[in-house]
Amino acid sequence: MAEYESYFDHEPDAGGDGANRFELLGLLLAKYEEDHFPMPAASPVEAIRFAMERQGLNQSDLATLLASRSRASEILNGRRELTLPQIRLLSKAWRIPAQALIGEQEVA
User: Rounded CA gap, 13 and 29, in Å?
Assistant: First the structure.
């Protein structure tokens, strides 16, 4: 995990050995997490609450991360959906799989 995270600060050049290693490590970690820590199918809010509980975080921590108390409240109460930048931020900062934060999209 530490080796994988080291690439976050120094992203490897596309197509190079570093990029291939980064991608392979990511796939291995994803498979390991899927096998050992399966994420139940849940709404994005449930995924956030699950991560908060597991990591000992609360709504204030979410507000700090999002830089907005009202946004944190609206998201946790289901009045506002996550934006793509918020999904990226939560995924990286709290290690929540992005797919869990995207949720099911209704088709019209």
Answer: 21
Q: Say if CB 103 and CB 43 are below 8 A apart.
A: yes
Structure tokens at 89: 């931020």
| pLDDT per position as a tens digit, 44-77 | 999 999 999 999 999 999 999 999 999 999 999 9
Lowest mean pLDDT across 10-19, 20-29, 71-80, 90-99: 10-19
Cα–Cα distance measured from residue 23 to residue 25, given in angstroms and rounded to the nearest whole number? 5
Q: Tell me, what amino acid is at 59?
A: Q
CA-based nearest residue to 22, from 12, 34, 10? 12
**pTM of the shown model:** 0.59
- 59 Cβ neighbours under 8 A, 6+ residues apart: 52, 72, 73, 76
